[in-house]
Structure prediction request, 454 residues.
Amino acid sequence: MKTAVLKHKAHNWKSWLGLTSLAMLSLGACTLPRVRTTVTAPAQIRVTIVATPAPKVESTGGSTANPSTAASPTASAATSDTNPTAAPSAQATASTPAAANTRPASVRLEQLVDGLDEPLYLTQAGNGTSVLYIVEQAGKVLTYDTGTLNETPFLDIVDRVNSSGNEQGLLSIVFSSNYESDGFFFANYTAKNGDSVTSRFSANEDRQTADADSELVLLTIEDPYGNHNGGLLKFGPDGMLYLGMGDGGSAGDPQNNAQDTQSLLGKMLRIDVSKASEAEPYTIPSDNPNFGDDAKPELWAVGLRNPWRYSFDRETGDLYIADVGQNAYEEVNFQPAGAGGLNYGWKLREGLEEYSGDKQPQFTDPVVEYPHADGCSVTGGYVYRGKAIPGLTGTYLYGDYCQGTIWKLTPNGDSWNNEELLKDNLRISSFGEDDSGELYVLDHSGAVYKIVAE
Prediction:
């Protein structure tokens, strides 16, 4: 078996700076009361919605240069009880997304299952079944179907997953577009030595379980610290496999990985796995942007701290990326479909604010940022394209891990409107989307909820 290993200087210790909101909240969040609150009025949180001109980045390597990105939980806890102010609207970044439904939507969270072991992700296989696949951080994938949680895991790779760090573990899976015929799916996880591993697995013939021994390692990235792992895999509308990688961890990106184009850390990567084999685990798409003569060819976007959940709008192909901040700001980025080659600015800036060095004109601004008075770790979601809640159509939902707030970000002509949708006592580790476009919320304390109409 061939493994593509990219070497970075490794450290055999874990800094206290690697402790994140996942660690700090795990001490008491499980005992918080479950109070459901539906909010349809504009959000009462202090949010900056950013107006920026269309980015002008030279197109290199055959692609149209523009925004792109990804996201993951890791930030300092909120340190202020400042009362927030109402969210304004502002100009859209780069291009205007498809118009959203402007009718108000009143929603609630309907619990599907509880008692899970730190769920981190939820998806479906795209094969016409009603089965939901739930990723547990320790290294299992469970299946849930019409009210029943299967006792037999679909996949169990606990034996090779390191989940000792608060942001380590089995981080995501994604199914091949031909899953029903080829049985392939892909996973990203933290190896026992701390490296980030992306592998292909095969489901058994009945598609009820997977063969853990079928693993073909496609990409291994040495990770110097235990936090900022990113780890979300998704196939884009172009059929390419995207991987969002954090900056390698600690605090403040001490190795400057996010701006180093010879590193795969702090980036959005884009590779072709359609003909993956032991001899050639992946190839480089011919239209990947060129970040320079010595840059890694896998790069799609740079300057990310810890992309914790990104998603493609299934109707337009636009990409939304939530990037976790350091000490002050959380952000959401918008990338028009098919764009690549952008720099999101970390660690020279956090959100719109200077962090380490001068702000550079080639940086792409977020469309939303919010301060740590209003949360501590952004969790990216999806643009709603389901049928059950017409008032949410075309609206991007995202949340905060610490506060349990879910916001809706809605394009309005050349502007964006940001409103609080609901708030609950959840540690929002991820959102999920099923094959019909309905959305789910994962509580890191152990539950999965579906977003339903009130």
